[in-house]
Amino acid sequence: MDEQLISKKELLELTGISYGQLYRWKRKDLIPEEWFIRKSTFTGQETFFPKAKILARIDKIIDMKDNLSLNELADMFSPNLAEMALHKSDIINRGIVSTMALQYFTDQTGDADAFTFERLIHMYVLDRMLHTGEMSLEEGKGLLQVLRDHYQRFEGRSCELMLVRKMGVSTFLLSASPGEVYFDNGTKLVSHISLASCLEELKAKLT
Amino acid sequence: MEQRQHLKIMGSSSSGGGIYDKVSILGDGEVNGNIECRLFTCAGTVRVYGHVKSEEMKIRGTSQMEGSLLTHKLIVQGQGDFTGGVKVQEASISGMVNIGSSLQGERLKLRGSIEVQGDCEVETLSAVGSFAVCGLLNVGSMDLRINWNCHAKEIGGEIIKVRKGSGITNMLKFIPGIFQVMPDARLTADVIEGDHIELEHTTAAIVRGNHVKLGPGCEIGRVEYRHHFYQDQDSVINSVIQM
Known about the structure:
Chain B: Pfam families: Bactofilin. The structure holds two protein chains of two kinds. Chain A is of the alpha+beta class. Chain A is built from nine helices and eight strands. Chain A has helices at 8-15, 19-27, 51-64, 70-77, 88-93, 99-109, 117-132, 137-150, 195-206; strands at 5-7, 37-41, 44-50, 85-87, 114-116, 159-166, 169-176, 188-194. The longest helix of chain A has 16 residues, at 117-132. Helices cover 2% and strands 68% of the residues of chain B. Chain B is built from one helix and 22 strands. Chain B has a 22-stranded parallel beta sheet that branches. In chain B, helix 1 (168-172) links the parallel strand 18 and strand 19 (187-199). The longest helix of chain B is centred in the C-terminal third of the chain and has 5 residues, at 168-172. Chain B is elongated, with a radius of gyration of 21 Å. The N and C termini of chain B lie far apart (58 Å). The chains are: A alpha+beta, B mainly beta.
């Protein structure tokens, strides 16, 4: 999983932010520690960032910092689950997930008037996976099961979800990020999504 | 709220931890387990084998915590050793503190010495004592008066001000001969990055900032600045680049 990196200097030039802002956002946990990649170069030690992730994050921070306080922003980016619940009607009205995903979710896990944030994120991931067309409805059961049983173990840490298939048999994997996973040749990595970014998207939709 | 009890240890005793209003240790105490309280005071010796959560912690004796600490206010006048991470709103340290992991805080007032093995993130740091940070020292604003040697691997922040302290050790150096053996107190760091940087008596490989002002006694490998740069004639700088 080779990502393109950007040096701190280039990042500041590109985005126009100052060292102080970058450090302040790091202190406020708006930029996760694991994105600070220290490497030694011929000029001494330099800090690098995963380019796509950091640029997207900084765009978002600059975009929203006038409306939200830094602490509210930090809540949004944190891998912790928010403490909130949403009514079933709101989920549909606000278009958070598709009605089909909601229907399937309630068929599998039971109906309710209101859903906790934890169940919302399960629903959201389900919806997203179904939308990409990479996962069949039948496989959705496996997805919901792995999320329900194991997602809580990653409390406060970011993790990734992978769907792999071999000889028509599919398996879901939840792994802590950053981490590396390798498969044998016969295995196909069908889908690979970051749950931290799902959380971020969901929180953005809710606020 | 339920009525909380006090935990008092006088003499030599141990406790299993728990939830209390006040915890005070005057003799030699040992706590085996997590503890949550409003006020934690120690005037003797205490060892805690667990995590501590409190509103206020005062250490006048010595304390050794084999866990993390989460507190609103921390006052150390004796010695405090923390194996885990420390999270504090307001800390005033005039004794000696060792932190095995990282320190996060809003305000830190340092008169004694502090050693942090991991990173140190503080909004406002005002220091006349000495510090050693093995990782990144990330500050909103730092005001350091150097009297003793200070070290951090990296320093980053908005306002970084380092001045020569007016402490007694520096005044005594004016008396020739006797105090010459004592080396000059300096701040050393690999990299210092910030918006406003004012340094004196600092050794660093790289200094990067918008406004950089280097006073007497600086030894800097490379300076990269955006808007302003000033250099005292009593400082040594290898190269200066405007970005």
